[in-house]
Amino acid sequence: MRCLQLTPLTSNFLPEIVRLDRQCFGGLWSSEAYAREIDSPNSFLVGLVDCGIDGASPETLLAMGCLWAICEEAHVTILAVDSQHRRQGMGQALLGEMLQWARQRGQEWATLEVRISNTAAIQAYEVFGFHPVGQRRRYYADTGEDALILWRNGLQELDFACSLDRALHRATSRLRYCGWSPHGLSHDG
Questions:
Q1: Is 125 assigned a catalytic role?
Q2: Is the pLDDT at 56 greater than 70, yes or no?
Q3: What phi and psi values does residue 28 have, to the nearest 5 degrees?
Q4: pLDDT category, 133, cuts 50, 70, 90?
Q5: pTM of the complete model
Q6: Which of 21, 75, 158, 165 lies in the 20 to 30 Å Cα band around 106?
Q7: CA gyration radius, the chain
Q8: Which of 113, 126, 139, 145 is catalytic?
C-alpha cells in the first residue's frame, strides 16, 4: 500500500499546488493567490500527498481543497483531484476534512459553486447533504458555463456530525480499497 498523507499546504508545496490547479482548472489561481491562502487565518488549504510505499519517496500532491471561513459560513473555493487518481475517495475525504474543520471553527453552513455539467462532483457533494439553491450565469470564464450554487446548513447539528462521520468512514474505506494507506484523516485508523 502507498502512503497517502493529509497535510496542511505550505509555501513548500506552491509548485505542486500550481501544477494541480493548471491540470484541473486551467490556471484558475496564481502562485501569489495560493500564497495568500496559505497565509490567511481564515483559509484552510489542505492536500492529500502521495508519500510512496515507505513514506520516504518524494511527496506528490494528488488532491487539494480550500475552504474560507466567513462569519458563520464555510465557503468551499477549491476541490481538485489529479486526473489519474479520481474515483478513489480523495475528493470526498478532502471535503469531509474541510467540513470537519468548519464544524470545529463554529461555522453554521457551507456553500460552493460547481460547473453545472460536473455531475460526478455534484453527486459527491450530495453525499454531504449539499443541495442546489441557485445558478450563476456564465460563471466560468473559460467556457461561459453556468455554475450551480450548492448549500448545506446545519453544520453544528448532531445529525450532520453523524452523517459526516459516516461519509468520512466510507471515503477512507474506498481509499484503502484502492491501495492507499491514509494518514492524518479522521478515519485513518
A1: yes
A2: no
A3: -60, -50
A4: very high
A5: 0.88
A6: 21
A7: 16
A8: 113
- Right CATH number for 2-183 from 2.60.40.1930, 3.40.630.30, 3.80.30.20, 3.10.20.90? 3.40.630.30
181 in Cβ contact with 6 (< 8 Å): no
DSSP the chain: -EEEEEEE--GGGHHHHHHHHHHHHSS-S-HHHHHHHHH-TTEEEEEEEEEESSS-SPPEEEEEEEEEEETTEEEEEEEEE-GGG-SSSHHHHHHHHHHHHHHHTT--EEEEEEETT-HHHHHHHHHTT-EEEEEETT--TTT---EEEEEEE-TTSHHHHHHHHHHHHHHHHHHHHTTEEEESSTT--
Residue type for position 127: V
Q: Note if 34 is an active site residue.
A: no
Residues 6+ apart with CB under 8 A from 152: 99, 109, 110, 111, 128, 129, 130, 131, 160
